Amino acid sequence: xxxxxxxxxxxxxxxxxGTFRAVDGFDLTLDKGDITAVVGESGSGKSVAFLAMxxxxxxxxxxxxxxxxxxxxxxRGISPRKRRQIIGKDMSMIFQxxxxxxxxxxxxxxxxxxxxxxxxxxDRKERHARxxxxxxxxxxxxxxxxxxxxxxxxxxxxxxxxxxxxxIACKPKLLIADEPTTALDVTIQAQILxxxxxxxxxxxxxxxxxxxxxxxxxxxxxxVSVQYAGQKVEMQDVRSLFATPHHPYTAALLAALPERATxxxxxxxxxxxxxxxxxxxxxxxxxxxxxxxxRCRTVAPPVGGPELGFARCHYPLNVAQEESx
Amino acid sequence: xxxxxxxxxxxxxxxxxxxxxxGQDRIVRALTGASFSLEAGKTLAVVGESGCGKSTLARCIxxxxxxxxxxxxxxxxKAGPDTHDKLRTTVQIVFQDPYGSLNPRQRCGQILEExxxxxxxxxxxxxxxxxxxxxxxxxxLRPEHFDRYPHMFSGGQRQRIAVxxxxxxxxxxxxxxxxxxxxxLSIQSQILNLLVDLQERLGLAYLxxxxxxxxxxxxxxxxIVMYLGRPVEVGSKEAxxxxxxxxxxxxxxxxxxxxxxxxRKERIKLVGELPSPVNIPPGCPFSPRCWKATDKCRxxxxxxxxxxxxxxxxxxx
Lengths: 325, 317
Description:
The complex is a heterodimer.
Chain A (H helix, E strand, L loop, with lengths): L3 E12 L2 E13 L4 E5 L6 H9 L6 E4 L2 E4 L2 E2 L5 H7 L4 E4 L3 H4 L6 H13 L3 H14 L5 H4 L9 H13 L5 E5 L7 H18 L2 E6 L2 H7 L2 E6 L2 E7 H6 L4 H8 L38 H5 L27
Parallel strand pairs in A: 3-9, 3-10, 7-8, 8-9
Antiparallel strand pairs in A: 1-2, 1-4, 1-5, 5-6, 10-11
Helix pairs in contact in A: 4-5, 5-7, 7-8
Chain B lengths: L5 E12 L8 E13 L4 E5 L6 H8 L7 E6 L2 E2 L5 H4 L3 E4 L13 H12 L5 H14 L16 H13 L5 E5 L7 H18 L2 E6 L2 H7 L2 E6 L2 E7 H6 L4 H9 L39 H5 L10 E2 L6
Parallel strand pairs in B: 3-8, 3-9, 6-7, 7-8
Antiparallel strand pairs in B: 1-2, 1-4, 4-5, 9-10, 10-11
């Protein structure tokens, strides 16, 4: 059985100007040991989908889904008490901004030991030993002394390591990394990504990498899901996605990468991601798509089969594995 | 060869960190010995990690701050407190965050007109408005955007307004401090194209500050790599990207992820983090993290040497 099974997950936010659908029909199946990347621009609902699974959304959010199971537990009707036993232990998350995600009032040692105390019921001595072990594992120098440091006394890279140590403290089955390296410099980013993939290999956990950086995706992920305006538009193996994207959005996104440029002018995607008030009727990408016609603007496209990378498009590209457009 | 519009020599900036009642004051050496020249129509990129002095350099060049040592010549005039007034219109800056750099209480038109109100007080209101509307078109915005407030625009459009505002005084040098790093990929390419177009049309010189090497590779003509406030390698884009001479540049390039899953490359793993600019290690500042460091590196500071591809390393490649 799959570790995580999500079918048709939608998240609506009640706002003063009506409901806003942030995630629309999100599907994901994860097995033990998978490394999946979720890519999309800001506002594409990639973080919200996973926050919904963790149960961390505010009360204004309405979460609906056909199926939402994690490790045999149905997360839809789960009691808060039961949920607290799962999240942070079997399913944990690394948040985007290490500087703001840690509590500034407590030492990092207290914060990491808290998780060990509540989830694993270790005694004081065991907790201390485990915390030091974790800090060593994530590459924090002088772990004994660092345990009594406050978040503001450490750099962003160190705080991110603390976040990772906290997330893996209880040996989770699923680790969700939400933009784990966006706030960091490239040399530190390389260290953190290396750390995450090596941890994944050691423990065999499933890893979800939420990011907008195509370079990070290419170097770490095995499978990629592309999100646009709350919908999953395409999902493929990383190599085939970069070689033969089926959805025009993925193709345009890849073409816009500066390193793929052949001329001084980059290919662009005109317009912006639709917001709450200008959501198009048919395909959500149609106003910005180079291949859109009348049918795209009026009829919502179906989800394609696995041979098309589940592309949500009337006219998927590279159908017969021809050269890309 | 044309005369460079900007020549900087040994720019140095230091900040004093108050030690408190009993502590000693400490000095942050944010920028040390930055020298370069920039020609009209060219782009000079400054790359490095956070804390390497990129933004300090931008603040010195735009005369937001006075450097403690060194000098620079802008368009034939040496910059100093007495010439600041005149020179400030020849160099303008675009900041990283288009959400923070525009006044939310001003309309787009007012934002564009403000530099003229302050620096060209003799200009009539109609003339100002006319120029602002021209600028709006130049940076790819629509005329109806003139009366809108910044919150009504997307990030990319705001960055267009910020670029437009910087160009209102017809500067010769534009300092771009991470102009696209806050933007999404699809918007990033639009702004990069706009910058390329404007450079061609107006013959602007860009000082392009970025940490994203793939963007730098796309826009730059020359590159300065900085580490802990010092330039460690200077050269043309082709030279820097094809043949790195400084170990730090090599490590930086190998750490940058490349969007091609078929490419498996050897990555140089740097140990440790950037030291604090308060206590810069003696000798070569990169020596504690360098895999080639010897005793000489730890005691003697290498100077930036070599033409045209200069490097500050005892054992360059």
